Amino acid sequence: MITEIGHFALILAFGVAIVQMLVPLIGAHKRWPGWMAVAEPAAGAQFALTALAFGALMYAFIRSDFSLALVVANSHSAKPMLYKISGTWGNHEGSMLLWVLIVTLFGAMAAWFGGNLPPTLRARVLSVQSAIAVAFFAFILFTSNPFDRMAIPPFDGRDLNPLLQDPGLAFHPPFLYLGYVGLSMAFSFAVAALIEGRVDAAWGRWVRPWTLAAWVFLTIGIALGSWWAYYELGWGGFWFWDPVENASFMPWLLAAALLHSAIVVEKRESLKSWTILLAILAFGFSLIGTFIVRSGLLTSVHAFANDPERGVFILMILAFFMGGALILFTLRAGAMEARGVFGLVSRESALLVNNLLLAVACFVVFVGTMWPLVAEMFFDRKLSVGPPFFNAAFTPFMVALGLILPIGSTMPWKRARIMRAAWPLRYAFVLALAVAGLAYAMQSGRSLLGPMGMFLGAWLVAGVVVELAQRAAWDWRRVGRLPRADWGKATAHAGLGVTMAGVAGLTAWAVDDIRVAQIDAPFDVAGYTLTLNDVQEVQGPNYLSTMADITLSQGGSVIAELKPEKRFYPVAQMPTTEAAIDYNLARDVYVVIGDQQQGGGWTVRTYIKPMTNWIWIGCALMALGGVLSLTDRRFRVAAGARKTRAQAVPAE
Amino acid sequence: MKRLILVLMLLATPLLAVQPDEVLDDPVLEERARELSKGLRCLVCRNESIDESNASLARDLRILLRERLVEGDSDAEAIDFIVDRYGEYVLLNPDMRGANWLLWGAGPLMLLLAGGMGFVYLRGRSKASRQAEAPLSAEEEARLRDILNR
């Protein structure tokens, strides 16, 4: 019964979305207030109905209702509750429902908090947002209905992919989708502004919080996914340049570019048409990501719901929205002339260079991801583009970005002198050189990657400190009183530095060891002593486990007891490895247990991974920076303005 | 039942990527083999190198690669040997032959193109500044005085 209510609510939401797509758009064109006003309640209703549908599906998963085909395929009665809940979006149909739920959520938020927007712009934004929802409602209802019933319900389900039964991954998709779909707001604002034919500073101010929120969610989502890959896939990689990872990384890069260029629009009324284009492309790449994951076009570790028919449908959605928006862009972009004037060396140009590097880096990732397809179609060559290519082709852009960031971010608007901006940073530069020199002296290999990463990390973090001090006029008591936006910027930039240092440290200095370990025979890896004490068979809630007990010690004192596992999920017939990791800020000791050997003993792989946690600490700092910036007074002032306006309306 | 599950477990058990019995005695040679295997694709896997993969084909390739190195092949010869037999698809790092220059050149070319456009735009903006900074007309001066004195 509840399932049917959910299904019905979904169809109803589809209907409401169609109304919300058409009526306010016509209303805005004809200047009919009544028609424009439809958008607001419609957006709320659409969200409520979709939430009801999603709730119904989640209820079916929690109750293990095996009359639903989707629950049978992705759940099992013995599964822990957390994974029953996360199973709702751990599959194609459910994840699409979550996708569209977030589209409607953002639409409703724009309706609720968009009181200070001009009425025509708001009507158009909500209409475009609803058009996106219509496309995805149609996709769900016509090709991937989550509410399909089984004629004969089986006794139990086929279980969720065991790799996905993990706390890190349970929350990875929702964050990622919040990010992907958050960019739909920037897209809707861009298209609405193109229809409106006007982009001004106010537009920049409205777009920026949505983009920033989307970017924060994407950062968290990507970091969670990367962290999961690190501890779950059993060999400690954190980034694979897999097509699906790239699909989430490209929107992240463009969102980062967009939130910087929107600053230029807001403060200086320049870079307008570029910002609009970026907003369209950022969401376009989110759609491409969805297409890549679900079409099976590019093989990846995220194999999930590979179905050509669905792929074609998403490709049509992509073609419609990108084609439409880009045509509109070429027709209207000429009308948006820049107002601000600035010198060749200025904060504006620094932000332009930031955009240039981020956008071209994104382009490199895009070409690398699509190249196997292009080569096969046009040049009849079946080839692979893997991590070595991306590491070589992508890294230089990030290095360049890190090098110019502190200088660019301390430059004044309008007109600057490089030496004047760079001079106070001499302390940061000297410190960074010292750190790099130290790293070079301490490492055994001759690779420059490690010292380079340490240099960039120290340069960015110290640059941030100098910038904060400068903002506070070198008076430490004033630092605390700087606006949140300054703190947000500083935190996010420092986070980037920390992540860069972490990536370089891990890549350059990781040590690994593979051996057959005998019980009670200690062995040494890079200064650590490991002893395999015991291996046991353990029964988990829905799996069997081979669990080793390894003592990690250094210089005779015990550091940790590590319990790496090999699990087997009988329902899904799938094995997984559970690495045991001793975390600390300087290094991770990462241990994996393998097979029992015929001559006695077990295969044990040990990795010493320096600075790994810096990667995720840096991501957390970047996200925190975004949040700090979002809570800045300026946005709250806008909220206050909305209230006074809302009171003024009845008086008219 | 329990025995059955144990049997299944052994059948489906994940082999770890590089096995101890594959490791060469010569550490220099082994280091070269590890580096090279990071650039070779496991053909039956999804975007994994043979160094990371658990598949048996990856194991065969790792052993083949090590055999070639023990035979005295240089890095390039060993890679060519494998590419000759398994095709270009096995290379995770695409070479620069033929149309692949487009792949490798895409980033630098785009940077040049976009950088050029950005520079033209910036120069336009800084030239515009001269016009915008033209002195106020007499009428504007009067209006400004009017506002300031009010």
TrEMBL record, chain A:
Just give the chief location class. membrane
Does the keyword Transmembrane helix feature in the UniProt annotation? yes
Kindly list the places in or outside the cell where this protein is found, as annotated in its UniProt entry: Cell inner membrane
Task: Look up and give the membrane topology term.
Answer: Multi-pass membrane protein
The UniProt GO MF terms for this protein read: heme binding; heme transmembrane transporter activity; lyase activity
Q: Name one GO biological process term.
A: cytochrome complex assembly
Enumerate the UniProt keywords alphabetically. Answer: Cell inner membrane, Cell membrane, Cytochrome c-type biogenesis, Lyase, Membrane, Transmembrane, Transmembrane helix
PANTHER family in alphabetical order: CYTOCHROME C ASSEMBLY PROTEIN-RELATED, CYTOCHROME C-TYPE BIOGENESIS PROTEIN CCMF
Name the UniProt record assigns to this protein: Heme lyase CcmF/NrfE family subunit
Q: Which organism is it from?
A: Sulfitobacter aestuariivivens
Automatic annotation (TrEMBL), chain B:
List, alphabetically, the InterPro entries matched.
C-type_cytochrome_biogenesis, CcmH/CycL/Ccl2/NrfF_N, CcmH/CycL/NrfF/Ccl2_sf
Q: Give the signal peptide as a residue range, or say none if absent.
A: 1-17
* TM annotation in the entry: 101-122
A molecular function (GO) held by this record is:
metal ion binding
User: Which ranges carry the CcmH/CycL/Ccl2/NrfF N-terminal domain?
Assistant: 6-148
Chain's role: Possible subunit of a heme lyase.
Q: Spell out the family assignment given in the record's similarity comment.
A: Belongs to the CcmH/CycL/Ccl2/NrfF family.
* PANTHER family the record matches: CYTOCHROME C-TYPE BIOGENESIS PROTEIN CCMH (PTHR47870:SF1)
- Identification of the protein by name: Cytochrome c-type biogenesis protein
Q: Organism, per UniProt?
A: Sulfitobacter aestuariivivens
